[in-house]
Amino acid sequence: MKIAFVCHEAALTGAPKLGFEIARYLSDTSEVIMIVKKEGILLTVPEYKAAFSKMLSVNTSHEVSRYSFPERVSIARQILQDEKPDLLYVNSVASSDWCQAGWLCKIPVILHSHEMRNELLSLQSVDIFKRDLPKYVDLLITVSPDAEIDITELCSRPFKKVLSSVPGINFNAIKQLSDEKDFRRQRDCHNSIFFG
């Protein structure tokens, strides 16, 4: 399977870092192309360079370009037609112009939304977030139930499928796992506790 991943930027911050890590994980079983709308340090990380079959910086972010929404969709559509992925994973509503491009190319679209209400309204004010977004998305993944509520309340129609993450760290489960003798012996880590 060929997966096109789109991140709104390649900075060493929350959503881009998470997107790059998910893409790297999926690269173990799929061909992954990483597309970023704004250049950044993550494009230089050797582990990512090795994991992805291609890395493209398209510089269509509203922060670095003056492209209109239809122009951004057109650029995205051309790239998708050239690359022919089986799946499009859009990591952040800040890249949601790619959702429409994927829909136009008849590619299944996953949108991973990290944004809360104020961020969505801010993205709407700069012509990024559109209230008809669910039309173009096959699966919405949100970072929390609150993020799911915010995006669904602002959209003009429901999403086809939604998966919400539960935020937080289960410290009791981690401690229990780290206390198990078999786990410590297998990992040769004695009294260490792991996070991640």
Fold topology:
Layout: E1 2-7, H1 14-26, E2 31-36, H2 46-51, E3 54-57, H3 69-83, E4 87-91, H4 97-104, E5 109-113, H5 117-125, E6 139-142, H6 145-154, E7 162-164, H7 171-179, H8 181-187
Parallel strand pairs: 1-2, 1-4, 2-3, 4-5, 5-6, 6-7
Helix pairs in contact: 3-4
CATH superfamily of the largest domain: Glycogen Phosphorylase B
Q: Mean of the pLDDT scores? A: 89
**Any idea what the CATH architecture of the largest domain is?**
3-Layer(aba) Sandwich
Radius of gyration (Å): 18 Å
Question: What percent of residues are in strands?
Answer: 15-25%
The CATH topology of the largest domain is what? Rossmann fold
The global form is: globular
Strand order of the largest sheet: 3-2-1-4-5-6-7
Q: Can you tell me the number of structural domains?
A: 2
Supply the helix-strand structural class.
alpha/beta
Q: Mind telling me the CATH class of the largest domain?
A: Alpha Beta
Tags for this entry?
alpha/beta; Rossmann fold; disordered C terminus
Can you put this structure into words, describing what you see?
The protein has eight helices and seven strands. It is α/β, with parallel strands linked by helices and 196 residues long. Strands 3-2-1-4-5-6-7 form a seven-stranded parallel beta sheet, with helices on both faces. The chain is globular, with a radius of gyration of 18 Å.
